[in-house]
Structures are given as structure tokens and as C-alpha cells.
TrEMBL record:
Membership in a protein family: Belongs to the group II decarboxylase family. Sphingosine-1-phosphate lyase subfamily.
Record lineage: Bacteria, Pseudomonadati, Pseudomonadota, Betaproteobacteria, Burkholderiales
Source organism of the structure: Undibacterium curvum
Entry cofactors: pyridoxal 5'-phosphate
Name of one Pfam family that matches: Pyridoxal_deC
Keywords per UniProt: Aminotransferase, Lyase, Pyridoxal phosphate, Transferase
Cross-referenced InterPro entries: GrpII_AminoAcid_Decarb, PyrdxlP-dep_de-COase, PyrdxlP-dep_Trfase, PyrdxlP-dep_Trfase_major, PyrdxlP-dep_Trfase_small
GO molecular function: transaminase activity
Top-level taxon of the source organism: Bacteria
Keyword Lyase: yes
Protein known as: Aspartate aminotransferase family protein
Keyword Protein transport listed: no
Length: 404
């Protein structure tokens, strides 16, 4: 047997040891311009790439990390990802991946009921989950139009474009949610997309609208996991949707690429999304062809933490966002965009001229920026349970000091 394909404890231990190593600054990777004729060997590759790959990446679990929707991931998910990479199962083929298929079914059976859905499948992200859901809306409900708010994720317009559906964007209200007074009366040919936690502001669209259109899809990429927490009521009404998208690589702390598309009537939706093929023992459902055992990392995390462990981490994140909100709302130099609903705090200095120097002074990875109706705002996202919110508040305070 070619030993490159065998378990190499020494090499793998070394890879793990390097993960704990501190690399000062990413070294410029000195990579060959052309594909090398001769390989350097796997062991040498670890040393060659560690400073760049491990040293060059933002550490999402660091105390200052509070800028984006990308969370740190638990070590159990790394272990499962390693197993997955070594086994390379393909969920297309039940014969080679019987247990992996069962694991995906199990994860769906555990999570779907929190959303009033009865099943679905995993996708590499909510971009694909949204496309898949709108594909079933088109073929199950005969919709010709997609309606979403100006605050919706770009993947909704992208999906409408791919599917040949027209796209109507409804303005947002002062809190970033869909302004329902501007919605057309006739929704009988429409897929209505409601966002649960918009990417920019974390706003939740009015869920009273769920069920009013020929198809209702909830894009819960970010805030969906709140359903497992004491904040579940914030997404009340989601069970009236026909489909839901959730990115597990956001608030379920999973390595990319892990997401779910859920359906209220999975049998019907999957029938519309199924294609058979001579070499396939079961039909191919959804957008993907070959599909890996991503579910094992999610299942392992859920098994390790339980609902309670997931909830506790998300609730802690919500608390961090609330502390930041309290600082912003009571500091007279600052303006809060709106009350944060789903762990996203959007704010800016009242003095517009301060925006640039505050941007430069804030620690890298602590804060992102967003543009709403042509205005610039700072944005903090509570995806990191280990964030030090007092340190962040102190750094915002320092950044606001007038330059001398
Ligand atoms: C992140 C996000 C998406 C896209 O999800 P990916 O997992 O990045 O493909 C869609 N909608 C919303 C609201 C998001 O925040």
C-alpha cells in the first residue's frame, strides 16, 4: 500500500502541535510559480505551510474577535472533519456511506422540529439552501416571482436570477426589517422571503406575513439557531413557512461548509428536486452531486453539547451584544442604528468625520462596517462566545478620542 494513504500518527501529531504554535506575522509564502515537477514530501509541506496558513488567519475565538458571522469552531468538529477527510464518503452512494447518510437524517430529525419543518437536507451554505428552497417554490407552488426586502442577502436575488424568476425588492423600515405596508396585495404567484436576522443589521422581517404568499421561505442563515435558545420566541411564526435556510457554519459553530435547507413538506419538496441516473441507487436530491459527510461534525457537536450547550453559548453571545448595545446607547458621542434583535449591533459616531479615524484605530477583526441606505455604519456580530466585551468597549472608547 502507498503509505501516503495510510494513517500517519507522527505526521498528524505534528500537524496538531503546529496548531498550538504561535506564529508572529504571516510569512510571505514562497510558493513555486509553476506546478513543481517533484514533490517536497508531506512532512516538509507541514513546515512550509504552517506559518502562512496558521499564522496568516484571523483567530475567530480570540477575545477581540467580534466583527463577522464566522464563529470559532469546537475541537470535536475538527476531529470529525479529519475522519471525514480520511474516509471521503459520498452521500450520493448509500453503499459507501450508509452511516453518514443516517447521521444527516438524524441531524435533520433533531433540528427540523424547532422550526416547524419535517426534514430537508444539508447544503454547503445558505446561499445554496436559499437557491434550493426557491427552486422547490417554483416547481411545487408555481411561483413566478421572488419578493424579499432591501435588507435581504444577495443570494436571494442570485437565486431568482438563476431560476428565471422575477425579483421584487421591498424597502426596509427604520429598524432594517421589511416594510410590510409596501408589500404588493397579490402574492398568489410569489415566493415571499422573510429574513430572520439580516446580514447587515440582524433585523427580523415581520413573521405575521409567513403563509400569506404562494410560498414562504425564511432565510434564517444567521439567526435560525436562536430557536434552540430562550430567545426562540423572536422567530415565532417561522413554523408557518414552507422552507427555512440555516447556516450551521454561523451560529451553530461549525466548520464551513455546513448548512441546512428545511421543508414543511419534505416529501413533496424533495420530489420536485430529485433527479435519477443509471449509476445511482437512490435519486440525487437538490443542487449538489457528490456530497460529503459534513453532518458528522454537526451531529458530534450537538451530541457533545446537547440543546442546552448550544443555547447557553448563543445566549451568552446575545448577552455580549446587549452589553455593547448598552454602552453605545448611553454614550452621547455614539448613535445606535436600532435595537439589536439577533446579536448584531450597528452603530456610528455622531460626528461623521470620526468614522475614518475610528475605523483605523479599532483592533483588526473586532468590528466590521456596513452601508445602509447610503450611510456608513460600524457593525459588531456576536458569533464568538469568548469575546471580551469590556476590552472591545474600551477600545471603542479609545478610538473615539479626538486626534491631536
Ligand atoms: C450568511 C447569510 C447568507 C448566506 O449564507 P452562506 O452560508 O454564507 O452561503 C444568506 N442569508 C443571510 C441572512 C446570511 O446572513
Amino acid at each position: 500500500m502507498d503509505t501516503e494513504f495510510a494513517v500517519n500518527p507522527e505526521g498528524l501529531h505534528k500537524a496538531i502541535d503546529l496548531m498550538g504554535h504561535h506564529f508572529d506575522k504571516p510569512e510571505v509564502l514562497n510558493l513555486p510559480v509553476q506546478l513543481p515537477e517533484l514533490g517536497m514530501g508531506s512532512d516538509a509541506v507541514l513546515n512550509a505551510l504552517a506559518p502562512g496558513i496558521l499564522g496568516g488567519a484571523a483567530r475567530l475565538g480570540e477575545a477581540s474577535s467580534f466583527a463577522h458571522m464566522d464563529p470559532p469552531t469546537p475541537w470535536i468538529s475538527w476531529a470529525m472533519t479529519l475522519w471525514n477527510a480520511s474516509l471521503n464518503q459520498n452521500l450520493l452512494h448509500p453503499a459507501t456511506a450508509p452511516v453518514a447518510r443516517q447521521m444527516e437524517q438524524q441531524v435533520l430529525a433533531w433540528l427540523a422540529p424547532f422550526f416547524g419543518m419535517n426534514g430537508g437536507h444539508m447544503t454547503p451554505g445558505s446561499t445554496v439552501a436559499n437557491l434550493t428552497a426557491l427552486w422547490s417554490a417554483r416547481d411545487c407552488a408555481g411561483v413566478t416571482q421572488v419578493i424579499a426586502s432591501d435588507g435581504a442577502h444577495l443570494s436571494i436575488a442570485k437565486a431568482a436570477h438563476i431560476l428565471g424568476l422575477s425579483y421584487l425588492s421591498v424597502p426596509i423600515d427604520a429598524h432594517g426589517a421589511m416594510d410590510q405596508t409596501l408589500l404588493p396585495d397579490d402574492l398568489s404567484k410569489s415566493a415571499l422571503v422573510l429574513t430572520a436576522g439580516s446580514t447587515s443589521t440582524g433585523a427580523i422581517d415581520p413573521f405575521v406575513l409567513a403563509g400569506r404568499a404562494a410560498w414562504t421561505h425564511v432565510d434564517a442563515a444567521w439567526a435560525g439557531p436562536l430557536r434552540l435558545s430562550k430567545h426562540a420566541h423572536l422567530l415565532g411564526g417561522i413554523e408557518s413557512a414552507d422552507s427555512v435556510a440555516i447556516s450551521a457554519h454561523k451560529w451553530l459553530f461549525q466548520p464551513k461548509e455546513s448548512a441546512l435547507v428545511l421543508f414543511r413538506d419534505t416529501e413533496k419538496a424533495h420530489a420536485a428536486l430529485s433527479f435519477g441516473g443509471a449509476y445511482l441507487a437512490t435519486p440525487n436530491i437538490g443542487v449538489l452531486g457528490s456530497h460529503g459527510a459534513t453532518a458528522t461534525a454537526l451531529l458530534a457537536t450537538l451530541l457533545a453539547w446537547g440543546r442546552e450547550g448550544v443555547a447557553q453559548r448563543i445566549e451568552h453571545c446575545m448577552g455580549l451584544a446587549h452589553s455593547l448595545r448598552n454602552f453605545i446607547a448611553t454614550d452621547e458621542r455614539l448613535e445606535l442604528y436600532a435595537e439589536p434583535q439577533t446579536g448584531i449591533v450597528v452603530w456610528r459616531p455622531k460626528n461623521e468625520n470620526a468614522f475614518d479615524y475610528v475605523t483605523q484605530r479599532l483592533p483588526v477583526g473586532s468590528t466590521s462596517t456596513t452601508s445602509i441606505l447610503g450611510k456608513r455604519w460600524f457593525r459588531n456580530v456576536a458569533a464568538n462566545p469568548s469575546a471580551d466585551i469590556n476590552a472591545l468597549i474600551a477600545s471603542i472608547d479609545r478610538a473615539l478620542a479626538e486626534p491631536v
